[in-house]
UniProtKB/TrEMBL annotation:
<dbReference type="InterPro" id="IPR036291">
    <property type="entry name" value="NAD(P)-bd_dom_sf"/>
</dbReference>
<dbReference type="GO" id="GO:0000166">
    <property type="term" value="F:nucleotide binding"/>
</dbReference>
<protein>
    <recommendedName>
        <fullName>Gfo/Idh/MocA-like oxidoreductase N-terminal domain-containing protein</fullName>
    </recommendedName>
</protein>
<dbReference type="InterPro" id="IPR000683">
    <property type="entry name" value="Gfo/Idh/MocA-like_OxRdtase_N"/>
</dbReference>
<dbReference type="GO" id="GO:0006740">
    <property type="term" value="P:NADPH regeneration"/>
</dbReference>
<dbReference type="GO" id="GO:0016491">
    <property type="term" value="F:oxidoreductase activity"/>
</dbReference>
<feature type="domain" description="Gfo/Idh/MocA-like oxidoreductase N-terminal">
    <location>
        <begin position="6"/>
        <end position="128"/>
    </location>
</feature>
<dbReference type="GO" id="GO:0005737">
    <property type="term" value="C:cytoplasm"/>
</dbReference>
<dbReference type="Pfam" id="PF01408">
    <property type="entry name" value="GFO_IDH_MocA"/>
</dbReference>
Length: 379
């Protein structure tokens, strides 16, 4: 049977589009074809147009032109997060599904605005938290459900700069050229960022708007959306944040309170070129751990490790120890996410990482920012 090929319009031709999305659409050419690109940088448009296989895409600097085009079936939004909701609403006005890269938004106002637009549209919003589609993670979710009471969990994401990994991805991405930006584009972006930060921090979170608090919110939205979103799926939402040490640059830490157990969350960026990202859940007789590697080097697997107490020999009362590592596939989470998106658009599969689901992301950021406000170093 012939497979329906979805024509994709991409808004934002920066690093993630060059390193991940365009190459994946090229690989998945029986399901996707990139037909339209949008960016304010003419240099980025030119570079990405030459990356696209299967025909030269149309280009524009106007998101509305792309979203309304009859040559576009679905929209991928991976530009600056201050424009995610605006572009998402444009796609929805044109009744098109849109995959919006994380963070979906940094304030409640914008997410609720997007949800309202979605209710009036034939399109839907799919949020790009791709780690939640890795088979090892999905299997770990089931292991945790069946292992009995949780005693403790740990969530960690301490990595080297992304440039360490992107430079070795063999995609040879190119940064935006400052000369490409029109003054009015830069001014509009700055105004949007200021409005969003003040709305989120001052009006919704009730914390001071400082350079440190703005940096911290951006880090939670960029690096930590993946970690906290996966944490929610595997062990649920915490009741409270008991304490937090925040601040950048450096490593920051949070102590979550769940019903009957604590969870530590530690994250940050240093100069060591390693990618230490994992979730580890401790039960009485089993420990389940999921390890992630950088998504910018294709084919690095997500693994699940199970350590557990076992009977040494049948009929004996002594106990032994078992450790096994499960690697279900070498398919990377970005690819698996796109395959899931395809199923949602073409076959009507329910969207797990929806706009409504992302509201809980902001709930977590609010709890963290409020608990750690005393550690900000005002400059």
């Amino acid at each position: 049977m012939d497979t329906k090929v979805l024509r994709v319009g991409i808004i934002g031709c920066g690093e993630v589009a060059q390193v991940a999305h365009i190459p994946i659409f090229n690989f998945l050419h029986t399901k996707f074809r990139t037909t339209f690109l949008c960016d304010v940088s003419l240099g980025a448009l030119d570079h990405c147009s030459r990356m696209v296989q299967g025909g030269t895409p149309k280009t524009t600097s106007d998101p509305e032109e792309l979203c309304s085009s009859p040559d576009v079936d679905v929209v991928l939004i991976c530009n600056g997060d201050e424009a995610h909701v605006t572009c998402g609403k444009s796609a929805l006005r044109n009744d098109k599904y849109c995959l919006i890269e994380k963070p979906l938004a940094l304030c409640y106002r914008d997410i609720h605005s997007l949800i309202s637009a979605e209710k009036k549209s034939k399109g839907k919003v799919f949020v790009g938290t791709m780690r939640r589609y890795a088979p090892a993670f999905l299997e770990a979710v089931q292991e945790v459900k069946s292992m009995g009471p949780i005693l403790y969990a740990r969530v960690r994401a301490i990595i080297g700069p992304n440039s360490n990994f992107v430079s070795q991805s063999t995609t040879y991405s190119r940064p935006f050229e400052a000369s490409d930006f029109k003054p009015e584009d830069t001014a509009q972006r700055s105004a949007r960022e200021k409005d969003i930060m003040e709305t989120a921090l001052r009006d919704e979170f009730g914390v001071a708007v400082t350079e440190d608090s703005k940096k911290m919110l951006r880090m939670l939205g960029s690096l930590n959306t993946h970690d906290l979103s996966a944490m929610r799926e595997i062990i649920g939402m915490p009741k409270a944040v008991l304490g937090a040490y925040l601040g950048l640059p450096g490593i920051y830490s949070v102590l979550f309170q769940y019903e009957d157990f604590p969870v530590t969350f530690e994250s940050g960026i240093n100069a060591v070129p390693t990618f230490d990202a994992h979730i580890e859940v401790y039960g009485q007789e089993k420990i389940v751990r999921v390890d992630y590697d950088t998504p910018y080097v294709k084919g690095l697997p997500v693994t699940m490790t199970i350590r557990e107490k076992i009977n040494s020999r049948p009929g004996q009362e002594s106990f032994g120890y078992s450790e096994r590592v499960v690697r279900r596939t070498y398919e990377d989470p970005y690819t698996l996410e796109m395959l899931e998106f395809y199923e949602c658009v073409v076959n009507g599969k329910p969207i797990k990482t929806s706009a409504e689901d992302s509201i809980q992301e902001l709930d977590l950021w609010k709890m963290i920012m409020q608990a750690g406000e005393h550690t900000y170093k005002a400059k």
